[in-house]
Amino acid sequence: MSGRPTLAALAVALFGAGVAAQSAAPDRRMPYVAVHEPVFVPASTASFVQDGDFVIGVAKGRVAKAYHTLDLYQHGSVDDEMPDGPIEVTWCSTCGTGAVFRAEFKGRRLHFEYDSMVNANEVHKDVETGSRWQQSTGEAEYVRFGALGVVEKERAVDTKK
């Protein structure tokens, strides 16, 4: 009987050491951060894209771009430029939806990062104002502007999907 408390104490000590070692180990997963400076290759050299892969295509005038959903799966969104202005290309891995939005509000350029999930859909936060935007709708409940953090009390809706 006298050996049991020692074994229990040893098990707790080993478990604690294992937890400490895990928390000290570097996180080797790919960071889930948006791509802010995308790099493109000609379609003829994109051998990494296989038959059956999905892409989100965006075209304006003579400019056409394809965003591989496997890349979007790892990053959530891509900030990019088209001839008529900035865009955000998004992909929600949970619900399997892609959407493209104008990445500006009232003339102000916005850059996005993943923030959270709401109703099994991603929410992105713009870096400039800290406002949260629903990926499936392109809507924000508010948009913050101004150096003093003044909140503009209007529902922001991206009308150019």
Report on this model:
The chain is α+β, with helices and mostly antiparallel strands and 161 residues long. It has one domain. The protein has two helices and 14 strands; from the N terminus they run αββαββββββββββββ. It has a three-stranded antiparallel beta sheet. It has a three-stranded antiparallel beta sheet with strand order 8-9-10, with no helix packed on it. Strand 12 (143-145) and strand 13 form a beta hairpin. The longest helix has 22 residues, at 3-24. Residues 3-23 and 147-161 have low confidence and may be disordered.
Low-confidence segments, given as residue ranges, are 3-23, 147-161
Q: Helix-strand pattern, N to C?
A: HEEHEEEEEEEEEEEE
Could you give the distance between the termini? 71 Å
Protein structure class: alpha+beta
User: How many individual domains?
Assistant: 1
Mean pLDDT: 75
Structural descriptors:
single chain; alpha+beta; 2 helices; 18% helix; 39% strand; disordered N terminus
In brief:
The chain has 161 residues and is an alpha+beta fold.
Write the SSE topology.
Layout: H1 3-24, E1 55-60, E2 63-68, H2 69-75, E3 77-82, E4 85-92, E5 97-102, E6 104-105, E7 108-109, E8 112-118, E9 121-126, E10 132-134, E11 139-140, E12 143-145, E13 150-152, E14 156-157
